[in-house]
Amino acid sequence: MFAGGDCVTGPATVIRAIAAGKVAAANIDEYLGFNHEIVTDVQIPTPDLSDLRPRGRINTGERDAGERVHDFQCIECGFTDQEAREESSRCLRCDHFGYGIFKGGRVEKW
Predict the structure, then answer these.
(1) What is the percent of the chain where pLDDT is above 70?
(2) Rounded distance, CA 25 to CA 40, Å?
């Protein structure tokens, strides 16, 4: 039996689930006797991060307590269009806007 992702670690990030899937795929390949060497032939250019500053998550707004005490409407307001664009363009690993830097570098071979 091979397992990975949330069923092994409990709730975690998508990045960890993908990594666990790659490890499981390599183990299944080896178990079946294929022993393939999976390499990446993609050249990724080095990003220019000189003009990018680290930024954290954008917090959603909340309705005032005096306003929401009278109804059962949503408490959080959600993102504006601009906030949604900024949040979706932020790197989820390192809080850099745009292209992220991976600790330890990119894995070239599985």
Answers:
(1) 69
(2) 15
